[in-house]
Specification:
The protein is an alpha+beta fold. Helix content is about 30%, strand content about 30%.
């Protein structure tokens, strides 16, 4: 009996000495968002744990009070003592540089204006960022507005895809500035000593005869082909099961093969894949080994889930390992955007990309597919990655983006570029910027900033402003001062110095019929976009008038402009059917 009592006493001592307590809690950021995958170091044992997908944690410890250090990329580490008797809600503070990167970015900005009502649009499982159309603002009260110079072109080919399928287009899929700048308008080379050149016209507004239209063209300098720096390109290719369709992986294989044909010996190519496997498919290879690269692309096959987060991390790490100082270092992500493993939300992906933004590695996104195409994700990734975004709906588009416009797509001449325009209130009563509509999320965020971006070699941007003049049309204007002053702020690639260039828009009114055809054609594209968006500014004209204006101003030698007229005619039929259905209902 004494022996049994001694054994029992011994076990009670052991249990007391090794009593198990439980540290419980959750980890959030300063905006009260739960943070997953935070690293938690338990000081008493040296073991490392992590917060779950819901941001919560539960850790066994032998102590009633224990201490931990919590860390997560982009946040300040937190060391703290925790009591096991309490549930802890812990907050990680964002690092200053990371906070600056993670702010929502605006495409255009007019001071002190507040957003209107939000509209949500969805199409199947496809996702698009909710946009709020720019409205008229009083020049006397708000004379200054600005917008990012860089424009992607993905929206146009995506709109074309919908209309070729004889279906209506989600209004938020229509980004007017991307439709406008899909076309190759007459390039105006800037002065030899400048990165940017400007050209402007003031004319009657074709959809509102009482107003005027300011057409502004900004052209970026073209790089000398002999001086284009070597490239370190990492193709990051989605080979998941969702890519097993003719308009997805097979299209991307054709697209990348076209790009490979333009490589130089001094360029380096690597391929990272993610799907049933994640890893380096092709080790860094010289551009002169084209047959080897093409063979590697041809052997790609689809299957598995879509662990986009892991693929992005692998691609950036590989790009860093091959980094070329002063060169073109770039990850080219090609996917339908349907990430379903790892970090999948737009916010989580933004944080992942912004951590790499200042590394000097650009990100180009190529979207493909339909049905589960995630326009919102790819647009966010490209903006946060300081790069550009295109949608490939067919092989002709792949050739346009990766062959004909290769230098615009892959080689930048300016970073973080945006334009500020200050209207002369003596001449302008009110104005509205056409396109460059902001995402609702950015508008309601009080710390949002105007989004600049990468401007490619030879890139040309058209911007349109509808203006209500102080003086009525036809009324003689005695004050012939400038209509507006323009200031462009930018940085050169791989440089931290902020640079500026200015331009003054003369107030010389030209009849719309006398405008160069390319600018009249641009107006027809803006009208087309407004009809697709069911804009309140498109109530006074029809599809037929858009077709008439485009036909009168088209370049007969330009196949893309000819195709545009065909697309408008398809839209006229599709939206005509929709109106008939509504009347029946």
């Amino acid at each position: 009996m004494k022996h049994a009592y001694a054994i029992l006493t011994f076990f009670l001592f052991i249990i007391t000495a090794h009593a198990q307590y439980y540290l419980r809690g959750e980890i959030r950021d300063e905006k009260n968002n739960l943070l997953s995958n935070a690293r938690i170091l338990l000081h008493s044992t040296g073991y490392v744990y992590s917060s779950g997908s819901s941001g919560s944690f539960g850790i066994m410890t032998a102590r009633h009070v224990d201490s931990v250090t919590i860390s997560l990329d982009g946040y300040q580490p937190l060391s703290i003592k925790l009591e096991t008797a309490r549930f802890h809600s812990l907050v990680l503070k964002t690092l200053y540089t990371s906070a600056n990167l993670q702010k929502n970015r605006l495409l255009s900005f007019t001071r002190n204006l507040k957003p209107g009502e939000r509209r949500n649009w969805t199409v199947g499982t496809e996702t698009y960022n909710s946009l709020l159309e720019n409205d008229f603002v009083l020049a006397e009260k708000y004379p200054e507005t600005g917008f990012a110079i860089n424009t992607d072109k993905a929206s146009y080919s995506n709109v074309r895809r919908f209309l070729n399928m004889n279906t209506t287009v989600p209004p938020d899929a229509v980004r007017t500035e991307e439709l406008l700048n899909y076309f190759s308008f007459k390039y105006m080379p800037p002065p030899e000593d400048s990165v940017f050149g400007f050209n402007s016209y003031v004319s009657e507004c074709p959809w509102n005869k009482t107003n005027q239209l300011l057409t502004l063209q900004i052209s970026a300098r073209k790089l000398d082909p002999e001086k284009i720096p070597p490239s370190n390109l990492v193709f990051l290719i989605d080979v998941s099961g969702s890519m097993d369709m003719p308009n997805r992986l097979p299209l991307l294989k054709s697209a990348f093969t076209l790009l490979v044909n333009n490589l130089r010996d001094k360029d380096t190519i690597s391929i990272v894949v993610y799907g049933s496997t994640i890893g380096i498919w092709l080790q860094p290879t010289s551009g002169k080994e084209k047959a080897k690269i093409r063979k590697s692309i041809e052997e790609l096959y689809p299957g598995g889930a879509t662990p986009g987060e892991s693929g992005i991390r692998t691609a950036y790490n590989l790009a860093k390992s091959q980094f070329i100082k002063g060169g073109n270092n770039r990850v080219i992500l090609a996917t339908d955007g349907d990430f379903n493993v790892g970090q999948t939300s737009d916010d989580e992906l933004e944080k992942l990309i912004t951590l790499h933004q200042q590394s000097g590695i650009y990100l180009t996104c190529l979207g493909v597919g339909m049905g589960n195409y995630k326009d919102s994700k790819l647009e966010v990734l490209a903006k946060k990655g300081n790069g550009n975004f295109a949608y490939l709906d067919n092989e002709r588009e792949a050739e346009k983006v990766l062959v004909k416009e290769l230098t615009q797509t892959l080689y930048s001449v300016a970073d973080n570029a945006f334009l500020n325009i200050d209207f002369n209130a003596d001449l302008v009563k009110q104005y509205r910027l056409i396109g460059f509509d902001n995402k609702w999320k950015a508008l309601v965020d009080s710390v949002s900033e105007l989004d600049g971006g990468e401007v490619g070699s030879g890139h040309s941007v058209i911007a349109l402003f509808e203006i209500e003049p102080v003086f009525a049309t036809g009324q003689p204007v005695t004050n012939m001062a400038n209509l507006a002053k323009i200031n462009v702020r930018y940085k050169l690639p791989n440089d931290t110095l902020q640079r500026y260039t200015t331009y003054r828009c003369p107030y010389n009114v030209t009849s719309f019929a006398s405008l160069p055809p390319t600018y009249r054609f641009a107006s027809s594209v803006a009208m087309f976009a407004a009809l697709l968006k069911d804009s309140k500014y498109a109530q006074k004209y029809s599809w037929s008038e858009v077709i008439k204006l485009a036909t009168e101003s088209e370049d007969a030698q330009d196949a893309v402009q000819k195709e545009f007229i065909e697309i408008v005619e398809k839209a006229k039929k599709v939206y005509g059917r929709e109106r008939k259905r509504k009347k029946i209902i």
